[in-house]
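Hi Y.,

Following your request, here is the sequence exactly as I used it, all 484 residues.
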Amino acid sequence: MRALVRMSLLFVLLSTVATLAGAQWLCQYVTLDASLNGTGDRTIGVGLIKENTFVALCTRPNTYSYMIPYVNADSIQGRKNFFGYSTSGVYTTWTDGGFDQVIMNNVWSIAARPDSTVYVASNDADHNVLVFKFINDTMAIVPPYPRQQTGTNTIYGVTVDNNGYVYVCNDTTTGQTADLKIYAPIATWTVGGHNDAPVKSIDLPDGVYKGIAVTPTGSAIFICDYKNRKVIKYTGTPTTGYTLAAGFSFHLTAKDTITNSVVGNPPTNAGPIGLGYNAAKNILAVACDSLLKAANEACYSYGRIYLLNGNTGAPISTDTSMAIIDQARWNFNQSGDFSTQGSGTSSGYASTMDVKWDANNNIYSQSMYGWTVEKWKYNGTLPSFTTSVEQVGNTLPDGYTLSQNFPNPFNPTTNIDFSLPAAGSVSLKVYDLLGREIMTLVNEQKPAGTYRATFDGANLPSGTYFYVLRAGSYSESKKMLLVK
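Below is the corresponding structure, written out as tokens. Let me know if you'd prefer a different format.
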């Protein structure tokens, strides 16, 4: 009890100091290993169900892969299952209750939904997407016992949109074509067959890919290109397909180089590993570190989450205390070094592989070598970068129209009005002079009416761009000029 009081006083003190110093990200809690609330071993992912309720994913290559659920978690409570600290040979098994069994192995990515459905990308013999349900404090498998074989390639990232489409990507894509596969919702999967064809596939450029995130409707997919140290974005739909969004750009730089702790060993370049998308704010969180470094070379002085404008990939602010969660620096400030756990508010051993958001704009990450899940809160107001599309006026239009953007020229935002005389599917996209798609402003069903879309060109160079409206058999394009 005294320890809990001390931790509460410490958090109040930290919050007070941060308020005086200006808004910043604060670690609310870590699932503290010392309080027997830790995960028990290396923790690489977190599947968020709702605030303070999540599933931790623990993996060591060909040694163990298991999940630990938490409910109403804080630093000292919430864990519902535990496998102990001798976890070699512990594997969560998917089964239909009969002879169909899959041992979950080499799993690096987990996705959870508000209905407590949990998806993992397993590198068993058939590289299955395995589906579980968190019920009564247990990771259960429920009828119709969904799993989906994805082929012969190693898979990493997995995510699900609000319509239930499942997205899973290959790890290494050199010489391959169907690198990111999109499957229909699990309710449509063939019972007992487990070998449905994807509804769409994307041929990614050759590289090494890790985490993926998707917007609620599936209109945009974000993917970590770990090898080239960047995040790429595709726009489209699961049914019509996707194109690379040239207007989105995020690259790690020289400041993301990790000095190796072993004398004589070269420095390591950090890369993007995990992604979390905040639909309410249109902010993309990118977890960056060096993946699966050897324990005797662990450089815990680096571990960061970058927060980006989901339209452009630019930082959400020039204020780094808002745009970056520097987990390693936070750990050092709490305990005086990079490899000591604080009293409930720091993991130590920064090793940042995953990131998720809850509905209240809190962020959840983990420390792989600290054996913890972390919750972070920003004690100010985060900006929003939504590409707004709003209905204007109450008069039913006589026909399709696409208006000239205003203002024009513009810097960096402009408005585009369009009218629909009847309900139907509509898309409004922006292209550069080479015909490359820059951004999708609208791609959905809309009722009849007049609408206004806002385009943000903050991360684009000056120049001429085209925007194209397509609705039914109607298609029209216009030019606009960005001047900075």
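The helical segments are 2-21, 320-323, 327-335.

Thanks again,
Q.
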